[in-house]
TrEMBL record:
PANTHER family: BLR1237 PROTEIN, TRICARBOXYLATE-BINDING PROTEIN. Belongs to the UPF0065 (bug) family. This is Tripartite tricarboxylate transporter substrate binding protein BugD. The keyword Transmembrane helix does not apply. The keyword Signal applies. Pfam families: TctC (PF03401). Keywords: Signal.
Length: 327
């Protein structure tokens, strides 16, 4: 072997050994966590709670960077351009990593292939709510009402591709109705018009609607999960209320760029698990109505399988509705 070949072999060996060495010292500087939504929203709030705890476990600050736009796909796309070293991660979401596949014809990433999963962070139940003036007091009565008033009924949502949009599409599909949908620029304006009685009903995650339910300014028919939600224990589940097919939760998941070394992912996963085991974190998430993931879901492999299943679930629903968005 000549000198050139020896130098090339030595360089290759050095590169091969660099990944384990870097992983061994990880993290040696602050980590950036991209939140693909504006500050103050439910995903941002959950992320900040978890990031604070992870900072203590990792011995380095986990700094939040809000990169909003295009239903969260702008921030998700940003992560795909970052170095695969664990120093930039993100919190993905039902919209960014499941519904986006069918919603955005020009999506610039593949949610199932262009990221390295770290673990599921939390799920949040969907609540079926309506204006107080709606002449129905139970889910069964609501289903009967909307079937009888399909041509004039309407549901509000926070914009195309939002959780309140896609989850109501699924509800309407299961019931077998196609009412008018009324888009808003966010959950706040949609909720304001629901409270005012300007729109008929809204599907959204518990964290967004629980305050109004508790205040009695809107009706809550059912929560779309297998067990009652800790934030609204008096609201029945959809199974209890007669619509067991409507089981849907939204979720937040932690992801890294594709190709991030396994030892780095392990350290990030361990920090996530430590955060979710912390009593203070659990209490704060419970106040939001958030549910913790199973042990399998919080694993990288479990999250990968979960995302693939969610894409398979949402794609036909959105395509059947003929809805598309731009990014």
């Amino acid at each position: 072997m000549n000198k050139r070949h020896l130098l090339a072999a030595a360089a290759a060996a050095l590169v091969a050994g660099a990944v384990p060495a870097a992983a061994q010292t990880f993290p040696s500087r602050p980590i950036t966590m991209i939140i693909p939504f504006a500050a103050g929203g439910p995903t941002d709030v959950v992320a900040r709670i978890v990031a604070e705890s992870m900072s203590r476990s990792l011995g380095q600050a986990v700094v939040i960077e809000n990169v909003s736009g295009a239903g969260g796909t702008t921030g998700s796309t940003r992560l795909t351009t970052q170095a695969a070293d664990g120093y930039t991660i993100m919190i993905g979401h039902t919209g960014t990593h499941a519904a986006s596949v069918a919603l955005y014809p020009n999506l610039r990433y593949n949610p199932a292939a262009d990221f390295t999963p770290i673990g599921l962070v939390n799920t949040n139940a969907i609540l079926i709510t309506a204006k107080n003036a709606l002449p129905a007091n139970t889910l069964a009565e609501f289903v009967a009402w909307i079937k009888a008033n399909e041509r004039t009924a309407n549901n509000a949502h926070a914009g195309i591709g939002s959780v309140s949009h896609t989850t109501c599409l699924l509800l309407n599909s299961i019931i077998g109705v196609n009412p008018q949908t009324v888009p808003y620029r966010g959950t706040g304006p949609a909720m304001n018009d629901l409270v005012a009685g300007q729109v008929d009903y809204l599907c959204d995650q518990v964290v967004n609607v629980a305050p109004q339910v508790r205040a009695g300014t809107i009706k809550a028919f059912a929560v779309a999960q297998q067990t009652r939600n800790q934030a609204l224990p008096n609201v029945p589940t959809t199974a209890e209320a007669g619509l067991p097919a409507y089981q849907v939760v939204v979720w937040n998941a932690m992801l890294a760029p594709k190709g991030t070394p396994a030892p780095v992912i392990t350290k990030l996963n361990e920090a996530l698990r430590a955060a979710l085991a912390d009593a203070g974190v659990r209490a704060r998430l419970a106040e939001l109505g958030a549910d913790l993931p199973s042990d399998v879901q919080v694993s990288p492999a479990g999250l990968q399988a979960f995302i693939e299943a969610e894409i398979a679930k949402w794609t036909p629903v959105i395509k059947a509705a003929g809805v598309t968005a731009t990014n």
